[in-house]
Amino acid sequence: MRRKKLVVGNWKMNGRIAQNEALLRDILTGVKDLKKADYVACVPYPYLAQAQQLLQGTNLAWGAQNLCADENVALTGSVSPYMLTDYGCSYVIVGHSERRIQFHETDDTAASRFNSAQSAGLTPIFCMGESHDERDSDWTEYIVGRQLDSIIRRFDVSVLSHAVLAYEPLWAVGTDNPATPTQAQEVHEFMRARIARCDKEVAKKVRILYGGSIQPKNAAALFAMPDVDGGLVGRASLNAAQFVEICKQANE
Ligand code: PEP
To answer: Which of 24, 56, 174, 189 has minimal Cβ neighbours within 10 Å of its Cβ?
Structure first.
């Protein structure tokens, strides 16, 4: 099965209202004629309305970077799934390593967010990955397998048909040390095989993105791997020319 590639920009806590417009417009100009892949910008919450206004009706979708699992409860500072759909979001990042580490998210809370996102009609982009020490100890499959099972065991493998997975090794995110295409392929293949043990059709369908220091110079080789279905892009998504170039590689 040929899976359509997907490139997602994760702006993290970057952007200002004055600069976002130029960035989004330049990205749009670059991707508007690219038909063979899907493209998304995950912007900070305050800029969702701006993204909606600029991107509605285009081939650049938008999304958020996190959500709360609950609706209408006393949780100061939190944002619920339906607040995101109110602003036209299609996607939301769930379980990014920065949130797992700095905000103490666990497999369990990430799984709850995943479920709430889907219940509201959002497509979760579920992040998984091992640390440098875990890779050195040969624990990569154990960690990624455990993170994947946190979804499969609690819900059902079928939920992955309406989700995107992202392999984001912690040692590659925000560094200048991307995984090699072979390293990425090994883990993506492992994930897909684990899903296939439960349901072969879901395994064939689910898109698994690679994330961690993707740049124009390494995107093509990563995207050429059979189980790499696109990328989750941090820093390079803040530069229109770089992001568009990565989108073009996914469109090949
Ligand atoms: C990310 O934070 O999801 C990410 C992949 O960042 P970067 O591309 O900057 O490594």
So the answer is: 56
